[in-house]
Amino acid sequence: MKRKNFRLRFTFWLDMTKPDEENIAETIDHLKAERSFVRTVRDGIRLICDLRAGRLDVLFELFPWVRAEFLEYMASLQLQPQRQDSELRQRLERMERLLLEQGNVPISSTASGPKPLAAPQPVSPETDSADDDLLVVKKAQSDGSSARNFLEAAFNLIQ
Known about the structure:
- The structure is a single chain.
- This protein is mostly helical.
- Among the domains are: 51 residues, no CATH class; 43 residues.
- The protein has 5 helices and no strands.
- The chain is elongated, with a radius of gyration of 38 Å.
- The chain starts with 18 loop residues before the first helix and ends with a helix.
């Protein structure tokens, strides 16, 4: 059985008042002069349909350098978490070292649970001090204006 060959023609319009479509018309003229318009339309439709379907096969076929860039980018993303983990581990080790230098207990020795706190020691007022001034604490006297000011400010925020 012999198969009949036939060709189809598709026509579309460009609005020359739109700068983007005017640029497309100029590109089409250039492609026609190079006899590559039909191939470009076919490749463009294949590319758009493939990308819309979530595939990159046609992109990589038409532009092999994009595949190389993409693979390099993906490799850098895989290395990035390792670098971040390494940096985080270094920071944690530095913090632990600083805490140990200040006399804190190592983290590994507290793995069994927190140690009970020692009872607080009373401070006697008779202890010798290099500072002879005595700090006297008095209860603040208020006429309620600070509370009123606070509430007025809060209500002003709401309004």
